[in-house]
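Homework help board

Subject: predicted structure for assignment chain

Our instructor gave us this sequence and asked us to write out the predicted structure in token form, then describe one feature. I got the tokens but I'm not sure how to describe them. Can anyone check?
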Amino acid sequence: QSAWVGTRIFAKAAATLGPDLTRARLKDVLEHNTWDSGMGVTMSWPAGDHNKEPYSFNREFIYQWVTAADGGWDLKRIKPDPTYSG
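My token output:
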């Protein structure tokens, strides 16, 4: 689902920029608009501080199975974004 939402938002943002699609312009258009996910959630990324709410909720984490303290299994959240200081 997240891949579908990401692709949908990217397509909308890219369409607003037209043929002059650059990383800086894409980032700017994503930061200054809200985006309908198509699943009932509106996505937004505040300009400047990407650790500020609601950006921190617009993040997908990867989980890894690890051994728990009791010998069973647990999940460890991996933060794929190296700029996230959470």
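Reply (TA_rk): Your tokens look well-formed. For the description, you could write something like this. The chain has a mean pLDDT of 79. That's the kind of observation they're looking for.
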